[in-house]
C-alpha cells in the first residue's frame, strides 16, 4: 500500500509509462545491498533512497579521511574521523525517513559476505578494489542475486549488470586478473555518473522496466565525453560460474 503522501512524493516517477503505483510498491518492498559507502556508494545510495527503496543495507568498514571528500559527497568536513556507514546512514535517513537503512561496519570477506547479502534482491558493487568485487561476484552467483558492477579511475568509469546463470559475470570479463592495489586518481563527477547508472539499473530491475546492461560493459571516458560499449560473453571455462553450477545452484 502507498500512503497519500507517498503517492505525492513519488508522483513524477509513478507517471512514467510502465512504472505506476505497482512499480513504486515493488521499490518499497525491495532490499538492496550496497557494498561501499564511498564515491560510487554516495550516488547509488542517494538516488535509491530518494526513489523510495524499501531497505538499503550498506557495508563499509572505512573511516572518513580528508582525501575522500572530493567525491564521497555523503561525507562532509565535519564527518572526518567517523565511520562512513554512520555518516551515510545519518544523511540518508534525513533524505527519506521512510527508508530502512541497515549499516554494517565490517570488511566484506568470503566468510561473511553470504550473511551480509542474505535476503537482498540485488547487490551493488561500489567498491574500490577487484579482490572484493570477485568475492561479491561469487556470492551473487551462489545466492542467485543480480549484481551491478561499477568502477572508476580518473575521468573514466565502467558499469555492467550480471544476472547469475544467464549473463557474463565479472570473472568471465576479467578472468581473475587483479591490478596492483594503491591510491588511484578520481574526479568526483565520475563516480557520481557511474553510481547513477548503477542506481538506474537497480530501479529498472526491481520495477521490471527496460533493458538491462547485461553482456555489455559500458565504458565512459569523461575527457573525450564518449560512452563505448564492449560486448561481454559468458566464458565457458569461468571458474566462478562453474563453481556455482557444480554446487547445484
Ligand atoms: Zn563467469
List the keywords.
alpha/beta, Rossmann fold, 8-stranded mixed sheet, 10 helices
Describe this structure in words.
With 249 residues, the protein is α/β, with parallel strands linked by helices. It has one domain: NAD(P)-binding Rossmann-like Domain (Rossmann fold). 38% of the residues lie in helices and 18% in strands. It has 10 helices and 8 strands. It has helices at 4-9, 11-14, 20-29, 39-50, 84-95, 113-117, 130-143, 170-174, 189-207, 239-246, and strands spanning 31-35, 55-59, 100-104, 122-125, 147-153, 156-162, 216-221, 226-231. The protein has an 8-stranded mixed sheet with strand order 3-2-1-4-5-6-7-8, with helices on both faces. Strand 5 (147-153) and strand 6 form a beta hairpin. Helix 4 (39-50) crosses helix 9 (189-207) and helix 7 packs parallel to helix 10. It is globular, with a radius of gyration of 17 Å. The two termini are 34 Å apart. The model has no long low-confidence stretch (mean pLDDT 96). Bound molecules: zinc ion (ZN). Residues 169, 171-172, 235, 238, 240-241 line the site of zinc ion (ZN). Residues 169, 171-172, 235, 238, 240-241 line the site of zinc ion.
Secondary structure layout plus pairing:
Blueprint: H1 4-9, H2 11-14, H3 20-29, E1 31-35, H4 39-50, E2 55-59, H5 84-95, E3 100-104, H6 113-117, E4 122-125, H7 130-143, E5 147-153, E6 156-162, H8 170-174, H9 189-207, E7 216-221, E8 226-231, H10 239-246
Parallel strand pairs: 1-2, 1-4, 2-3, 4-5
Antiparallel strand pairs: 5-6, 6-7, 7-8
Helix pairs in contact: 4-9, 7-10
Bound molecules: zinc ion.
Amino acid at each position: 500500500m502507498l500512503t497519500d503522501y507517498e503517492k505525492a512524493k513519488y508522483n513524477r516517477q509513478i507517471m512514467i509509462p510502465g512504472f505506476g503505483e505497482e512499480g513504486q510498491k515493488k521499490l518499497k518492498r525491495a532490499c538492496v545491498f550496497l557494498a561501499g559507502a564511498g564515491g560510487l556508494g554516495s550516488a547509488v545510495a542517494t538516488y535509491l533512497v530518494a526513489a523510495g527503496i524499501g531497505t538499503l543495507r550498506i557495508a563499509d568498514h572505512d573511516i572518513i579521511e580528508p582525501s575522500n571528500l572530493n567525491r564521497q559527497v555523503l561525507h562532509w568536513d565535519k564527518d572526518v574521523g567517523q565511520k562512513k556507514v554512520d555518516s551515510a546512514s545519518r544523511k540518508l535517513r534525513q533524505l527519506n525517513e521512510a527508508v530502512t537503512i541497515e549499516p554494517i561496519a565490517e570488511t566484506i570477506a568470503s566468510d561473511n559476505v553470504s550473511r551480509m547479502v542474505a535476503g537482498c534482491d540485488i547487490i551493488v558493487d561500489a567498491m574500490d578494489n577487484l579482490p572484493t568485487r570477485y568475492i561479491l561476484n561469487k556470492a551473487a552467483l551462489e545466492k542467485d542475486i543480480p549484481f551491478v558492477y561499477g568502477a572508476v579511475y580518473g575521468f573514466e568509469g565502467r558499469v555492467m549488470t550480471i544476472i547469475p546463470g544467464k549473463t557474463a559475470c565479472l570473472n568471465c570479463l576479467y578472468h581473475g586478473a587483479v591490478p596492483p592495489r594503491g591510491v588511484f586518481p578520481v574526479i568526483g563527477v565520475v563516480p557520481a555518473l557511474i553510481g547513477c547508472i548503477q542506481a538506474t539499473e537497480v530501479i529498472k530491475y526491481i520495477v521490471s522496466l527496460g533493458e538491462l546492461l547485461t553482456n555489455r560493459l559500458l565504458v565512459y571516458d569523461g575527457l573525450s565525453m564518449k560512452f563505448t560499449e564492449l560486448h561481454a560473453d559468458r566464458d565457458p571455462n569461468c571458474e566462478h560460474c562453474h563453481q556455482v553450477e557444480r554446487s547445484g545452484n
